[in-house]
Amino acid sequence: MNANRARETLIDPTLSDQALAVVRKPSVWEILTSEKYFKWTLLIPLLLLLLVFMLYPLFYCIYYSFHEWGMQGDALFIGLKNYRQMLHDGSFMEALARTLEVLVICIVAELAIGLGLALLWNREFKGQNIVRGLALLPLLVAPLVLSLLWNFMLEYDFGAVNQILTAVGLGKVYWWSPQFALFTICLITIWQWLPFSIFVLLAGLRSLPRDVFEAAKVDGASGWYTFRRLTLPMLSPLIMIIVVLRTMWLIRLFDPLYGTTRGGVGTELLDWIVYRTAFVYFDVGYGSAMAIFSLFLTIALCAVMFRLLMKSLGVIK
Amino acid sequence: MKRIAALLSCALVIIGGTVVGAMAQDAKFGLEDIPEIKNKSALNTIVETGQVWDRIMPYIEEFTKKTGVKINVERVASPVVYSKENVELMGGTGYYDVVYVETAWTTEWSAYLHKLEELASKYDPAGVEGFRQDIAHHSPSILICGQAYGEQMVLPFYTYHMSMFVRQDVFDDPTEQANFKAKYGYELKAAATAKELYDQGEFFTRKKGDLLKGKPLEHDLYGLAMMAGAYQINDEISCRMWGKGADYATVVRDADGKLKEFVITKKDKDALKETFAEYKKELQWASPGCLTANFDFVVAQQGEGRAIIQPHQFSNCFAWTASIVKEKVPDGKLGIWPTVGGQPYTGAWSVGVAKASKNPEAAYWLVRYLASFECHQAVMKEGGQLSTRMDVLSDPMWHTAENKYPFGILCDYLIDSWKKQAAYVPNYWYFNTKAGGKVYEMQMNVFHKPMAGEASVDQAVQEVVAKTLELTSKFDKTVPIREEK
Q1: In the CATH scheme, what architecture does the domain A81-313 have?
Q2: How far apart are CA A264 and CA A245, in angstroms?
Q3: Which residue has the higher pLDDT, B263 or B102?
Q4: Considering only CB atoms, which residues of chain A are within 8 Å of chain B?
Q5: Domain positions in chain A
Q6: Is the pLDDT of residue B121 over 90?
Q7: pLDDT at B20
Q8: β-pairing, B348-353 with B154-159?
Q9: pLDDT tens digit string along A150-201?
Q10: Cα torsion A64, A66, A69, A70: sign
C-alpha cells in the first residue's frame, strides 16, 4: 500500500501514512475546487464558449473585412479597400443616417412614454395586475412575427388599422409611403419595446425612498419640482441603462424590416444592408467591413453612455 | 385461305406491335422503375413551407418505403432557401444531397451540382436515353432554364411562369367595351402594348359610386394591381424587358454557340429606362399599397374586386385569385393572357443533386421521382401548384366542362406560352451567368427605388448597370461582362 502510494507521489516509501497525507500531491478535483483556482474553474467554461462563439467569429470577421471573398476560392487580401468603399457608398451612409434617426426617435419616445406610464401605474388602481400583464405581451412575441402582423394590420386597403380609421371617418393612412415608412418602422419598434422601459422605470419608482418625498411634501415642494429635482435624478441610472441597452439593440434593428418593407421605401437600416451584402450578395469581405464598423459604432456609443451612467451613479466624476 | 390467315396474322402482329410500342412510349417513369439502390445513407434536403410540399411528403415516404433510403426534409420560408443552401454548397459540406433550386441560380450553382445525364448513365438501367425520354414530357423552355452550359443540372418541380390576369367579365361587358372604344378609339382587349395597358389602367381606375358594368361601385377601384415592393418587382420588370427584346445584359456567343461575353448594350439600357418609366407611370393606376406589395396583396386586390388587371402575376396564383373572385364577386370571372410583349418571366422551382452528396445514387432517383408524372399530378391536383409537365397539363381532367375554368384555360395558356417562348429562353441572361442569383437579389432592391421616389429613373438605371457589372465580374469568372458606352 505504502509502496503504491510512494510510486504515485514519488515520495520516500518509508514515510508513514500520516506524513504522506500531509505532503501528497493534491488531486485535480482538489486543485479545481481550491480557493486559489475555483474562480477559474467557474470562468474557464464560459471563456471557452466566448472564445468559440464570440471571439473566433469576431476575428474571422475582422480578417475577412480586409479581403475580397465571395465564398468561392481563396480570399484575396485587399487591405483597407472595403473600408474605403464603405465611406464612399451612398447606400451605406444613408442606412447609417437612418439608423441614427431611428435610434433617437425610438429612445426618446420610449423613455418619454415609458416614464409617463410608469408614473401613472405607480399608483394603486383597480385591475392593475391585468393592465401590467397585458402591457408585457408585445415583449413576449417574436419580433419577426410581430413585424408580419403589423404588415397586415397597416396594409393600405385591407389592413385592420385603416379599416378602423375609415369606420370612424378619419380616412386611410398610407403607412408605408416613402414619407411615413421609416416612422412606421419606429412605431412598430416602440410598440414592442415600450414595456421594457415602463417596467424598468416602474421598478425604479417602486424602490425610491419614501422619506425623501415625504420631507419634500412637508417643505411644500410642488409635484413638478419634486419630479424634476428628486424623481428624475434618482431614476437617472436606470434611464442610462435603458439608453445603453436600447442603443445596442436598435443599431442591430432588423426584424421589423424583414416582415414589412424588406429595406424598401427608404427604410434600409445598417443591419439590413450588412445582411444584404453578406448573405444575399455573399460579398463576405465588404459585408464583414460593414459589420465591424457597426460593432465599433455600438462600442463607441455605449462607451460614452456608460461613462455618463457611471457619472450618474457617482462612481466617477 | 392460308394467305388470308397469314395476312390477318401479319395485320395482328403489326397492330399489336404498334399498340405495345405506343404503350411503351407512353409508359411513364414511376416508383416501380427505380432499381435497387445500394447506398442506403439517408438524404437531406431543404424545401419551402406551404401546401405543395405538405402534399408531396406522403410521396417522399413512399419513396423511402420502396428504396429503404430515409429522406430528411428541412422546411423553411422560400426567401431563406437560397442563403441556407448557398452556404452549404459553397462550403462543400455535402449537407444537402438534394438541392432545391430557383432556376435563376442553376448556372451559379452548376459547379456544385451533378450533371443529371452523367448520373443517369451511371445509375439508370434505361441510361441517358431513358432519362431523356422521360424529361421530354416537361416544358421545353422550363427545361432550358434548368440547364447550365447546355447540361441538364436540375429538373423542374413546379412553375411560376408569369402571365396577365384580367377581369374577363368586365372586359367582355358591352357597356365597358363601348365606353372604352369611345374614349380611346380602339377595342377593349387584353393589353399587348404598354400604351394599351396604361389606357386600361386609367380607364378602370374609378371612385366609389362610379359605375362598373352599369352598377355603382361600393369602394374605390384601381385599374392595375402591381408588386412594386422590394421583393418581386424584378420579375415584373423582366417580363417587360424581355418583351422589348432586351435583357439586363445581352448574351454573345461565338460561331460554335459557346458563350463569348455578356454586353450591357445601349439597347438594354434604353429598354430598362423605358421599362422603369412605363412601370412608374402605370403605378398611378394602382393602389398606393402596391408600393410595398408582394404577390399575396395583389391577388387579394383583384380577388376582392378592387383591381381589374394584374399585368404581371405568377400563373400559379391564377386558380387562387379565381377562387377569391368566385367568393367575393359572384358574377366575376378571370382571363389569363400573355404579359405585354409576350415574353413573361419564366422558371420553376427545381431539384438537383449536390456534388458533395454522400449518396448521389439515391439523390438522383429522388430527383427523378419528384419530376415524374405521378408527383407532378399530385403537385397540380393536391398541392394547388402548376406542373411543368405537358402530359400533366394536357390531361383531359383539366379540360372538362367543370374544370375548364380556371384550370383548363390556365393549362392552355402555359402550353402555348412555353412553346412560343422556348426559342428565346436559351439567351436570357439570368440563365447563362453564374452571377444570376446575386444580380437577381440586387435588382429587387434597386428596381424598387425609382418607384418609391428614392432615386430617379436615370439614377436607378446607372445603379443597376454598375452593380450588374460589379457583381458579375466578381461572381462569374468564366464569361467576361462589359458595358457598351
Answers
A1: Orthogonal Bundle (1.10)
A2: 27
A3: B263
A4: 68, 70-72, 155-158, 174, 176-178, 181, 260-266, 268, 276, 279-283
A5: 2-77, 81-313
A6: yes
A7: 42
A8: antiparallel
A9: 999 999 888 999 999 999 999 889 999 988 999 999 999 999 999 999 999 9
A10: positive
B-chain residue closest to A151, CA distance: B292
Does the distance separating the beta carbons of A279 and B91 come in below 8 Å?
no
- Helix or strand (DSSP H, E) at B48: strand B43-48
Q: What is the pLDDT of residues B181-214, one digit of tens each?
A: 999 999 999 999 999 999 999 999 999 999 999 9
| Nearest-CA distance A50 → chain B (Å) | 23
* Closest residue in B to A265 (Cα–Cα): B452
Residue A24's pLDDT is what?
A: 73
B453 touches chain A (CB under 8 A): yes
Question: Are residues A117 and A197 in contact, defined by beta-carbon separation less than 8 angstroms?
Answer: no
- Per-10-residue mean pLDDT of chain A, 317 residues long, equals 46 61 77 88 92 90 92 87 94 95 96 94 87 89 90 91 93 90 96 95 91 89 89 90 93 91 90 90 91 93 85 70
Q: What residues of B are in contact with residue A155 (Cβ under 8 Å)?
A: 289, 297
Q: Residue B151 has what pLDDT? A: 95
* Angstrom distances, CA of residue B464 to CA of A267, B32, B294, B480: 19, 50, 21, 17
**Share above pLDDT 70 across residues of chain B, in percent, rounded to a whole number:** 95
Of A260, A266, A279, the CB nearest to B454: A266
B162-345+424-485 CATH fold = D-Maltodextrin-Binding Protein; domain 2 (3.40.190)
What is the Cα–Cα distance from B371 to B6, expressed in whole angstroms?
Answer: 45
> Which residues are B48's β-sheet partners?
B76
Measured CA to CA, the distance from residue A314 to residue A317 in angstroms comes to 7
Of A158, A181, A263, the CB nearest to B445: A263
In whole angstroms, give the CA distance from residue A80 to residue A39: 41
Interface A–B counts its CB contacts (< 8 A) at: 77
Is B438 close to A282, i.e. CB distance below 8 A?
yes
Which residues on neighbouring strands pair with residue A77, listed in sequence order? A67
**Which residues lie closer than 8 Å to B385 by C-beta, 6 or more apart?**
B51, B52, B158, B316, B379
The pLDDT score that the predictor gives to residue B21 is 42
Question: Is B79 a residue whose pLDDT tops 90?
Answer: no
Does B80 score more than 90 pLDDT?
no
- Which among B289, B442, B475 has CB closest to A157? B289
Q: How far is A53 from chain B (nearest CA, A)?
A: 18
**pLDDT exceeds 90 at position B93:** no
Q: What is the CATH number of domain B32-161+346-419?
A: 3.40.190.10
The kind and range of the H/E element at A236 are: helix A232-251
Cis peptide leading into residue B216 (ω within 30°): no
- The answer to whether B32-161+346-419 and B162-345+424-485 have equal CATH topology is yes
Residue B193 carries which DSSP code?
S
Angle between helices A284-313 and A232-251 (to 10 degrees): 170
Q: Please compute the mean of the pLDDT values over residues B319-331 and round it to a whole number.
A: 94
